[in-house]
Amino acid sequence: MMQFVKNFPLLALVVISLAGTATVEAATGMNPPMKLVWHYYKVTNTCDDAETYIRYQVEKFYKSDNTVAPKLLRLLYSDCMVNGCDASVLLQGPNSERTAPQNRGLGGFVIIDKIKQVLESRCPGVVSCADILNLATRDAVHMAGAPSYPVFTGRRDGGRLNADAVDLPSPSISVDESLAYFKSKGLDVLDMTTLLGAHSMGKTHCSHIVNRLYNFKSTGKPDPSMNTTLVSQLRYLCPPRTQKGQTDPLVYLNPDSGSSNRFSNSYYSRVLSHNAVLGVDQELLNNDDSKEITQEFASGFEDFRKSFALAMSRMGSINVLTGTAGEIRRDCKVTNANYGA
Ligand SMILES: *[C@@H]1O[C@H](CO)[C@@H](O)[C@H](O)[C@H]1NC(C)=O
């Protein structure tokens, strides 16, 4: 037990946060290493209380709507995995990333816009949308029960990408395809298994699971890896898709968490008892490493929490823009060149 997790540098994060040094080479193994700074806006004296303002706003939203936690997590993932954490996912317009089919139902934009407005009134032109998204997500998931972890800052915002740049994989790929995708972003099997644990809360569309329920791999039968009780329960919530334009209901990714949207390790226990809702989640048992990690996390919440902190840090450092690269957007929805246009 715990062998796998121990083999990974979980302690690195703790050491960094205790040392109190200003800079850190974010996310090892990335090429080239990017320089982010701990408490960038304080250290540079540009907006001392930026992180406090952000936490305050997130708290206000969270109190009336706990879905901000899964929404921001997904938003951050959708940003960082596609061309790095540059807030490009926030940009609006025809054929923008937001309009890609994989990003259907993406939420959390409203809270980011509100935070940006507040920060622009306190410290104009200083705090990037990319940092806001990272910090707000950290705070929201912390309120949902995840550990708080240091988010290194100083990211700058990137330009607009087209919808076809969005390479987010479908939620029914195999574990090998999933791992290849995470590796292409500089992440490893521990990051992947940990980040999929974000599915311990939130909802998904029935269209992502109907094949598992009715016609797995064109067999006309349900996915044999899905617990038969769950098949019946989900069939009730997700009728077969027979007509175009039919409604596409939402179901909980983790029925154990449901509307509480609590961050927990019950996701991993569900994977072990073949009760994962998405195919990509159930697939974790089909790779020796991700299976071992799943077993460890199912029996040890603390291991999952520590690994989550590290994996979020690593994901939040993918291809960040620093120094003079990119810009600090005035409005997270538009690049400065198009601001006020
Ligand atoms: C199916 O799920 C139930 C709990 O809902 C569990 O007790 C049972 O072991 C599961 N079956 C399999 C084959 O994993």
TrEMBL record:
Binds 1 heme b (iron(II)-protoporphyrin IX) group per subunit. Its cofactor is heme b; Ca(2+). Residues 35-336 form the Plant heme peroxidase family profile domain. It comes from the Eukaryota. GO terms for molecular function: peroxidase activity. Coiled coil: none annotated. Its main location: secreted. InterPro entries: Haem_peroxidase, Haem_peroxidase_sf, Peroxidase_pln, Peroxidases_heam-ligand_BS, Secretory_peroxidase. Removal of H(2)O(2), oxidation of toxic reductants, biosynthesis and degradation of lignin, suberization, auxin catabolism, response to environmental stresses such as wounding, pathogen attack and oxidative stress. It is an enzyme of class 1 (oxidoreductase). Keywords: Calcium, Disulfide bond, Heme, Hydrogen peroxide, Iron, Metal-binding, Oxidoreductase, Peroxidase, Secreted, Signal. It is found in: Secreted; Vacuole. Belongs to the peroxidase family. Classical plant (class III) peroxidase subfamily. Belongs to the peroxidase family. Ascorbate peroxidase subfamily. Residues 1-26 form the signal peptide. Pfam families: peroxidase. This is Peroxidase. It catalyses: 2 a phenolic donor + H2O2 = 2 a phenolic radical donor + 2 H2O. Its EC number is 1.11.1.7.
